[in-house]
Amino acid sequence: MLVGRGSSSPGRNLDGSTALRWWTRSQRIRTEGEVPFEVALYFRTEPPTYQKVADKAMHLSQLGMNSNRISAILKVDRTTITRALRWKKYAPDPDGS
Q1: Element spanning 73, H or E
Q2: Would you say the pTM of this structure is higher than 0.90?
Q3: In whole angstroms, what is the distance from residue 54 CA to residue 80 CA?
């Protein structure tokens, strides 16, 4: 027994019975090769500022300078220096040591 649109009750068939209803897909299933896919590629060629100044900021910090003084010397914002020091401290070592 097929179910048509406009059934009076969501759990009942057109004839009023509660027998299992036949369900069909409205669209066919598409495989990966048929699904349209579009992506914008973004290549970052330059690292962020905090990564560029991280080595200098860490060196100056080890010499005893605070973030405000380091930011004045390197001519960047204080939060950039804070981020650079945090990144340098917690970033994995590229040499693996």
Answers
A1: helix 67-74
A2: no
A3: 9
Go through the chain and tell me how many residues it has.
97
Q: What are the tokens at 92?
A: 């994995």
DSSP-derived letter for residue 76 is S
Using CA atoms, how far apart are residues 51 and 67, in angstroms rounded to an integer? 15
| Cα–Cα dist 85/15, whole Å | 73
Tokens of 61: 């910090």
Q: Which of 48, 51, 85, 47 is nearest to 68 (CA)?
A: 85
pLDDT of 25: 66
78 in Cβ contact with 67 (< 8 Å): yes
Cβ neighbors of 28 (< 8 A, separation 6 or more) are none
Q: Low-confidence residues of the chain, pLDDT below 50?
A: 1, 3, 7
Q: Can you read off the two tokens belonging to residue 25?
A: 């897909």
Give 47's contacts (C-beta < 8 A, 6+ positions apart). none
